[in-house]
Every structure is written in C-alpha cells, then in structure tokens.
Amino acid sequence: MGIAFCRTPYRVLFGLGMTVLLLHLLFTFHGSRLPSPSSTLLPVNHAVPTSPTGAATAEKAATTPLITAGASPAVTTTDKRANAVLVILARNREASGLRSSLKQLEQRFNHKYHYPYVILNDEPFDDLFKETVDAVVSGNVSYGLIPKEHWSYPPWIDRHKAAAGRKKLQDILYGSSESYRHMCRFNSGFFFHHPLLAQYDYYWRVEPDVDFTCNIDYDPFVYMQERDLKYGFNIAFHETSATVTTLWETTKQFMAQHPEYVSHPNTLEWVVDKRTGDYNMCHFWSNFEIASLNLLRSERYQAYFDHLDQAGGFFYERWGDAPVHSLAAAMFLRKDEIHFFEDIGYRHSVFENCPTGLTVNLQNCDCNPKRSVNTQDHSCTPDFLRLDPRSDFNITTMKQNVARL
Ligand SMILES: Nc1nc2c(ncn2[C@@H]2O[C@H](COP(=O)(O)OP(=O)(O)OP(=O)(O)O)[C@@H](O)[C@H]2O)c(=O)[nH]1
Ligand SMILES: [Mg+2]
C-alpha cells in the first residue's frame, strides 16, 4: 500500500489505462509481426527454435519482416510442425538475388510457417547483406561462417594435378573455377556439420536468383516427416559427363568395400545404364532439396563422402554435390523414400518445374507447364517415376494433362 494512487477510484482508472495500453501493444505487435490477416488465423506454432550452443554470436534475429501476403487461397494447415530449417549458401554480392528468392519463398510459403533460415558463407557476411535479407524474411535468421577446413584443400590433394584438371575442363561451365569446386565439396560433405544446423532434422536448400512460381499451401517438411521420406527433389537431369569421369568407378569401389552400407531394395536402377552398367548421369538437381539432415549425418553417408574425398575428384575433376547426393540417395534409399515435389513450382536458370495441373490449381502459379523440364524425355524424372508405377505421379497422365492445357 505504499503507492497512494492504488486506491479506489484511482485503482479503477489505473486498471482501465493498463488495459488500453496492453491492447494497443498487442495490436501493434501483431500488425508488425504477422504479414497477412489470413496468417493471423492460422494455428501454426510460431515458436522459433533457440540457437545451438556457440551459435549465438553468429545469430541475428530478423526484426522487420516486410512481406505482405499475396492472394493466397485457403490454406490447408495443421498444428504439426517439423524440426526444419531453410539453408542457403551465398556470397555477399548475391544479396539482391537472394532477396528475390526469399521474397518469393515467403510469399508462396513461409509467411504462414516462419521456418528459420541458416545462411552460410566462406567469408563473413557484411551488414548490407544481412539488412537485405532481414527485410524480407519472417523466420529467424542465423548467419554462419564456414570453418576454413571445410573450404580448402585437404593435405592429400596434389595441387598441380588439381590445376591440370581445371585446365582440362576450362571449356565447361565452372570447369576452371576453384571456388566452385570448394562449394561442391562443401555441399557434398560439410554443410550439415555446421553447428547452426545441429539442432534440425530436415533442410530445404534455397539459392539466390531462383523463382518459386506457385503457392505452396501445405508444409512440405511435415509431409516428409509424416511419410518418413528422406529426400525430396524438384528437377532431375543429366550431368555433364566430363565433370564426373571417375565418380562411378569410385562409387563402385565404395560399394564393394562396404556392401553393408547399401540398402536392399535401393534406387540404383535409376542411375545405372542397364546395357553397360555405367552411370547414366541422372541426378537430382540439388539447388532444390528438401531432405533429411540425419541421412547426411549418417555413418554410411559420411563413409561415402570420405571415400570420395580421398579419391580427390572434387578437385581433379569437378564432382558436383548433385550427383554425389543422388548416388548416395540411390545407394541408401528405397524409391519410396524419395519424393518428387511435382507441386512446387520452381525455376533455376534455364530449367524449371511447373506443375502439370493434376494436384495444383495453376491459377495460383506463375509458370507454363509446357516449359517444365520434368515431363520431357531428356529429363531423368520420367525414368524415376516409372520405377514405381504406383507412385503419386504417373508420367503418362502428367504428359496427357500438359498436352490438354
Ligand atoms: N559463399 C559462397 N557461396 C558460393 C560460392 N560459389 C557458389 N556459392 C553458392 O553456392 C550455390 C551454388 O552455386 P551456383 O553458382 O548457383 O552454382 P550452380 O547452381 O551450379 O550454377 P548457376 O547455374 O550459376 O546457378 C549458390 O547458393 C551460390 O550462392 C562461393 O564461392 N562462396
Ligand atoms: Mg545456382
């Protein structure tokens, strides 16, 4: 009772004042944090996972999400949420390209779910990069630096041989690039060991300058989790063979040394040429991946990566993380643990996946299914879908549907 005004009628007035103030604060907070009236109604858990030990200094919460929701259709959602993260590797100079990708990803999907982001770089991110990203995301962002040992030559690599390898491939895209090789090796063997990712089970890889062309009205992470799916792709294509001259030989050596690691059944049929027994160059395009971090952290994946890394093909040739992840998925997963995200409209450089209209209302898309690479025979997706005639997507039906449009 030491405070004089804590007596009626002052107590009543104070109570009223506090109520008004609280209501004001509540509306101000909601107005700035939640981007659309529809999203305020969604029963999605907005909790943001706490950062792992030691990651706190690298972490910066996004405070000013500016995205406003477009005209999203009715959203099918549940309270369920996966322990998942959006992962990006980028350079400072790619800030505006990344902003473009993330604005679309937020508008199409994440403004309803607020999944966190982990963004990694081999150099520290500058303030401009962070400001650019923070301005467009609705999830928490952690910026991480890649340890030197994950982005440099291991001691057993012969630098002269590596230089000769780059010269040999100089006429191929990124064939003469050293940094591209570090990037591919990092994405093959190290990103999932970064401490900022330690707490998560699933990741979705995103790149600068890609387009998400359809609304995504469900949670693909939960979709994966509920079906025990391990690897999700969106585009499958043939690799440039000169970049992986000895990758298949080296993979066969691994399988011979470690038959215990190869699953039965597996998906090797998809990557092996029936006539010759060679690698047919099919791979999932890893610039889009929704997958299990535990798969990559598994003993067998680690053993496979170590085997490849010792052989040196990341530097002597130009092994990409896409064929490496794909061969791993083929050896370690059953076909029904791999999912084709046909319904996610996605464009990366010249290739795109545009839904065929079987599962997605194309009015909510900004792409032309006739331009989609996945229904074309020179893509590797038809072969993948034919492996399992009971799969959700039947290539013949998909093609027929596109032809009718
Ligand atoms: N920090 C960092 N990121 C890189 C570097 N090189 C590539 N990346 C990132 O790694 C990913 C793949 O690189 P890209 O250059 O897109 O390679 P790509 O997809 O094979 O080829 P593009 O057709 O050019 O897109 C992207 O997210 C890039 O931002 C690098 O030297 N440093
Ligand atoms: Mg790219």
UniProtKB/TrEMBL annotation:
The chain crosses the membrane at residues 12-31. One of its GO terms (cellular component) is membrane. PANTHER family: ALPHA-1,2 MANNOSYLTRANSFERASE KTR1. It comes from Tieghemiomyces parasiticus. One of its GO terms (biological process) is cell wall mannoprotein biosynthetic process. SUPFAM superfamilies: Nucleotide-diphospho-sugar transferases. Belongs to the glycosyltransferase 15 family. This is Uncharacterized protein. InterPro entries: Glyco_trans_15, Nucleotide-diphossugar_trans. One of its GO terms (molecular function) is alpha-1,2-mannosyltransferase activity. Pfam families: Glyco_transf_15. Signal peptide: none annotated. Keywords: Membrane, Transferase, Transmembrane, Transmembrane helix.
